[in-house]
Structure formats: structure tokens, C-alpha cells
Amino acid sequence: MRFSVTQRILGLLIISFSITLLPPLCLSLWYQDDGYAAFVIAFCVMSSIGIMLWFPAREAKKELHLHDGFLITAIFWTVLSIVGALPFLFLAHIENSPNLTIAQAVFESVSGFTTTGATVIKNIEGLPKSILYYRQQLQWLGGLGIIVLAVAVLPMLGIGGMQLYRAETPGPMRDEKFTPRLENTAKTLLYIYIVLTISCALAYWVAGMSLFDAIGHSYSTVATGGFSTYDKSLGHFNSPVIEIIAMVFIILGSLNFTVHFVAWHKSDLRYYWRDVQGRVFIYIILFLIVITVVTLMLHSEDTKHHNFWSALRYGSFEVISIISSTGYAIDDFSAWPLFLPILILGSGFIGGCVGSTAGGFRVIRFILLYKQAAREIMRLIHPNAVIMVKIDNKKVPDNVSQAMWGFTFLYMFSYVFLSMLFMATGKDYLTSFSAVAATLNMTGPGLGDVTSHYGEIGTGGLWILSFTMLLARLEIFTLLVLLTPAFWRR
């Protein structure tokens, strides 16, 4: 473990991130709001921290090992979440702005970076424009993974990127690279990400949003984040056209970006349907929409849901928003009849595709679990048969299957343990289990006291949920591996 190398890279990354404060700072000057001082102070603090870390270790330019990648990824996300909270802390000095505690400010920052979309702020539209933009920008930066974006420039700094890439994406597809060099892979991902964001912003603008709202919501839509510039989220606009645009780009953000690259590179949209993970994702969405629409029409006490088109509008949007871990809202699904609130919140456990900006357990893991369960049943019937688990006609390696079972156990254990820990802060079981589900799956809205915001959660609960979001964003292994004694042995 070379701590000087880790220190140098962390310093460089924090210095680089401080530059992202310049756009909201410029907006503050443009709109002449009160957020100017907050961003100036935050910029000075962030850049100073980065320089203090980098300067003493500026000559440490050795190649990274895998251990270094895990350590840098975990520490960087933690440190960035803390320093990213600075603009929210300075809100206390702005008239008519919320006076956030340290726990609340860090929670808002972590929620942005991890694209969870949960918020502790109640009067969102009362915030300065610069702060509103900053919240949306946080989600855009976190959407594809700050580390994955950073590996495009690390080679220019004399730093290899593969270790960081593996640490950031520890899922079943983690070793896939669709261009020969990792920095080219990161640049390709960034290019696709930018094109989707610009397309989404233009679509929103044409549909009637202001340019500011269109850009801000495009950031959180493609990132499947869910932050909005209004308390009522997309429901503020009450526009079916805007909702359709949102659903389209949410789904695009939830698909594997490898598939985006191949389909665009070969100019063949059929590649989207050839991807088994994408097909299953669409099938699950359609299945949940049918159940939701039928239940709303037959059992809803709200007359607006009795009409088929109205039920389809609200039902499809909430299903797509939650399963993709976006968390936008146009209606209060927690008040829907029968089992629908639990069904929709539970769909967040499925999540989007691996290699996408979405959270959750990820569709590919559910496919692998199903195929392995089917194999075990067939083995009972045919004990001597050799049955392989395949995805897209390719054999799944045994080490991938074993890692998936380990991940599944840790995912379930983390959910139960953190829910019980959160309940120990004094919250009821519905709020506790739904809040942890919403943050572990990065969906944002929950049930009970966290239906619309997390402003009523105490300090201890906020720290637990902040840890939960980081744990989910780093897919559990990356963070928990640091807690094992074996990791620190030479």
C-alpha cells in the first residue's frame, strides 16, 4: 500500500472537482443571487484541501495496484461527499434559505453524488438559482461515476486507470472494455453521456420548460438521479409530453452504456433488443405497469385514476421512475391502493442494467439468480447432467457466479442490518425499512416519514442513510473490503 500515491491522486481529484464550482459561481453572478459567497468560500476550501494533499506527495508517481484503486475510490467518494456539502452549509447565511446542520448538508451532498435524489430541503424553489443548479450538477457528475470520468485524464497525469475502473464497477461486467485503451473507454462513455444529456435538455426545452429547468432536469434525468428544481418534482409542470420525454431518457440512462456504444457505432438499433439484460428490463417494466394500471382503475379512491389513460399516465411514470432509481414524482404513490406502494418501492430493488447510471440490485444479477435456480432444479431431475449457466449464449464463469452469491448475501444482510440500526434511532418500522430501501437502491422517495423528503429524520438516522448511499454507490464490496484485516496486510 503506497499512501503517498493515494494522497497525490486524491489531491489532484479534489483540485479538479473544485473547478466544477465555477459554473454555479458564474450563475450566481448572472442572476445576482446570494449564493456567490458560498461558492467562493467552498472553492477556496476545496482547492486548499486538494493542494495540501497533493503538494507533499507530488513526486509519488508509481503505478497503481488494485488495493490502491479500492482505497482511492472509497476515500475519494467519502471526502468528496463531505467537501461537496460546503455550499449547503453556507445556505445559513442566505436570507430565506434553510439552516442545514452538518448531517443534513452531507446527506444532501451524498444524495446528489450517488444519484439517490433524496432531499432534506422542503422549500426547494426558494433556493438561489446557483444552488439549484449545483444540486442538479452533483447528480450529473455522479451519474456515470466520477472515477470513470476521471480515468480519461489520469493517464495524462502519469496514473494508470484500470485499477480505479475495476474498483468503481465491481459487477459481473466489470472487465469489459469496448475500446482498446481505458482512457478511450472513459472518453467514449463521457461522449455518450453528453449527447444524451444535450438531447434530453433540448427535448425538455421544446416541450415547454425554461432553459434553466431543461438543463437542470436533463442532468438528473440521464443520471437517473431525481433531483428537481421544484418541490413537486416533474409534477410541477403537469405536462404529459414532459413526462414522456422523462420516461424515454430515464430508460436510456438505465440501459447498459456498452449497448449504447455498439448500437451507435454500428448504426443498428437492433443491438438494444439483442441485449438480454435490456430485454428483461423492459419486460419487467411492462409487467409492473399492467399490474399498476389495472389496480388503480379498479381500486383507487381518486377518480382521476379510474380513466385508463390517466391510470396509464401516472402508473407508468411512477413505475419507470422508481425501478430505474430515478425518483421523480408526478403523484403520491404512497397513497395508492392495496399493495401498490410496496410493489413500486420494491421494484427499486431490481434496479436498472449493470453498466448504466441506475442503482438497485441490477437486472443482470436477477437473471443469473434465476438461471442458477433453474439449473439446480434440473439437476434434481437429472443428477448426472452437465448444465451450464449462460448469458447471451456465453458461459458464465464460476468466479462470477460465486461473486454474485457473495454480493447477494451482503446486499440482503446490509438491508436488514441497516434497517434495524435505523429503527434504533426511534423511527417506526415502515419509515425505517422504506428509508433504507430507498437509499440502498438509490431511488429517493420512500414511505412513512420519508415519502416526500427526509427533513424530519434526526442526525443519527441521516448519518446511517448517508453511509447506506455510499455503500450502494460503491456496490458494497468496494467499501466493505476496506473493513477486512486482510486488505491491510502487506
List the helices and strands and how they pair.
Layout: H1 3-18, H2 22-31, H3 36-54, H4 66-83, H5 86-89, H6 102-113, H7 129-143, H8 146-150, H9 162-168, H10 182-207, H11 211-222, H12 240-254, H13 257-265, H14 270-274, H15 276-299, H16 308-323, H17 340-347, H18 363-381, E1 390-391, E2 394-395, H19 398-423, H20 429-440, H21 459-473, H22 477-480, H23 485-488
Helix pairs in contact: 1-3, 1-4, 2-3, 2-7, 4-6, 4-9, 6-7, 6-21, 7-11, 10-11, 10-12, 12-16, 15-16, 16-17, 19-20, 19-21, 20-21
Description of the structure:
With 490 residues, this protein is mainly alpha-helical. The chain is 61% helix and 1% strand. A two-stranded antiparallel ribbon has the order 1-2. A hairpin with a 2-residue loop joins strand 1 (390-391) and strand 2 (394-395). The model is unreliable at 149-166 and 168-176 (pLDDT under 50).
In short:
This protein has helices at 3-18, 22-31, 36-54, 66-83, 86-89, 102-113, 129-143, 146-150, 162-168, 182-207, 211-222, 240-254, 257-265, 270-274, 276-299, 308-323, 340-347, 363-381, 398-423, 429-440, 459-473, 477-480, 485-488, and strands at residues 390-391, 394-395. By secondary structure, it is an all-alpha fold.
What's the helical proportion of residues? 55-70%
Please give the largest β-sheet: 2 strands, antiparallel
Distance linking N and C termini = 7 Å
Number of strands: 2
Unreliable sequence segments = 149-166, 168-176
User: SSE string, helix = H, strand = E?
Assistant: HHHHHHHHHHHHHHHHHHEEHHHHH
Rg on CA atoms, Å: 22 Å
- So what's the overall shape? globular
Looking across the biggest beta sheet, what order are the strands in?
1-2
Helical element count?
23
Helix-strand makeup class: mainly alpha
The amount of beta strand, in percent, is: under 5%
pLDDT averaged over residues: 85
